[in-house]
Automatic annotation (TrEMBL):
This is Ribosomal-protein-alanine N-acetyltransferase. It comes from the Bacteria. Coiled coil: none annotated. The keyword Acyltransferase applies. Residues 154-168 have a biased composition (Low complexity). Its EC number is 2.3.1.267. GO terms for molecular function: protein-N-terminal-alanine acetyltransferase activity.
Length: 193
């Protein structure tokens, strides 16, 4: 994800997560951590053949633990393997960051996302009551130990199926004039992955 992707990402964000969409400032903050040798974030976009943005995902790595911050595919492009490709790429990023484990939160009523995560070896760890506000929906916390081996296994087992789209666009740092200084958290807003 590059800084100029933020506007189109925000349009998707409103469709994918209407109840608790991230702000532009939050994406700017995340991308500010995705640059240089001390980077702790990796954000990727999925583009259709015509160059339009149809999905995105992001991972944060702190002290050897990765956290899927967000992942989403536009409804019309789901079920073609793009979500899997994005997740695989994020697990590769976790491996690059030398994470020993990867965590995520997912709404307890989000069966498609839970199936995706289970396919990659994520296992339930616990419940966070009322994690998603204002809807007051619980989050299932899931954990993947040893993302390196799971990413490799997923590479071998799941052929790239994102017909006509790419989930491997390289990230690019935002300019130094990013209007928001990067916080360590999401300014009180929850993750989407
Ligand atoms: C969760 C999400 C990212 C999955 O994205 P996706 O692109 O549909 O994921 P995939 O295509 O890799 O897999 C989805 C299904 O399509 C199937 N599939 C993948 N490629 C396929 C192909 N070429 N032909 C047929 N089926 C295919 C998968 O097996 C999977 O089936 P299942 O749900 O029965 O297990 C997507 O549903 C989404 O964006 N949801 C809204 C946002 C959201 O909830 N994000 C997660 C927050 S925690």
């Amino acid at each position: 994800m590059r800084w100029w992707d933020i506007d189109p990402v925000l349009e998707l964000e409103g469709e994918l997560f209407p109840e608790d969409a991230w702000s532009a400032g939050m994406f700017w903050s995340e991308l500010a951590y995705a640059r240089g040798p001390d980077a702790t974030r990796r954000y990727l976009v999925a583009e259709a053949a015509d160059g339009s943005l149809v999905g995105y995902g992001g991972l944060a790595a702190v002290a050897g633990t990765g956290d899927i911050q967000t992942i989403g595919i536009l409804a019309a492009h789901r079920g073609t393997g793009l979500g899997s490709r994005l997740l695989r790429a994020l697990l590769r990023a976790a491996t690059d960051f030398e994470c020993a484990e990867v965590l995520l939160e997912v709404r307890v009523d989000n069966a498609p996302a839970q199936r995706l995560y289970e396919r990659f070896g994520f296992a339930p760890l616990g419940i966070r009551r009322g994690y998603y506000q204002p809807a007051n929906v619980d989050a299932l916390v899931m954990r993947l130990a040893d993302p390196a081996s799971h990413a490799a296994a997923a590479d071998a087992a799941v052929p790239d199926a994102g017909r006509g789209a790419s989930a491997d666009a390289p990230e690019d740092p935002p300019p130094a004039s990013s209007p928001h200084s990067p916080p360590n958290t999401h300014q009180g807003t929850n993750t989407h992955g």
